[in-house]
Amino acid sequence: MTDKAVPLVELRKVGKSFPDPKPLTILQGVDLTIGAGETMAVVGSSGSGKTTLLHLLGALDRPSSGQVLYQGEDLFSRPADRLAHFRNRQIGFVFQFHHLLPEFSARENIMLPGFIAGEQPRAVERRAAELLEQIGLTARAEHRVGELSGGEQQRVAIARALIMEPKLLLADEPTGNLDPQTGEAIFELLCRLNRSLGLAMVMVTHNYQLAARLNRVLRLEDGALREIDPEQLAQLASIAP
Q: Which CATH code fits 9-100+168-237?
């Protein structure tokens, strides 16, 4: 049983820099806690390090300094095989540009992480069918990627991120490449899945109106992460994205 007093994820004085070809500091001394089931938006200018932050939270990249803790354990104290197992089972990733495999159907793309993990095919197929129903694409299950609209492709990418029933969903501009109506539908889907599945969600976005509808909004600027107060957030959200 998970101790509810322990955050799902915690960053302690995390820094990230790249030494070559020219020294570049992206993050410095970042502290952050994410509770189970919490939703959070991260905003900031292009190049401020938002995607880097997601990669650290999802154990896709290692910090240059500090610790990334998952339920109290330092993630990067784990050997590479355990870290890969953690990413596959505990973290779901949704990217702006879906990264679906075009030669596969929607259903096959969704099932892929389960097969990579060595799960029983029947269990993976059953979970994929449930997710297809949740995202409203049961009738499109056997369609290949090129036969799906941009919004449908993003829904498939979300279902693929959830097939292993992760506790944390990381979404990098999931609506940024979609028209406003489709983007709103994708955002509503993510929020509905957060409520029904109880998973925590961190979303990188440039859209303050969407960001304001999540539990917390933080701005990444000059390598530091700061929470935006409600009054300032209301002002920013009143401006069209």
A: 3.40.50.300
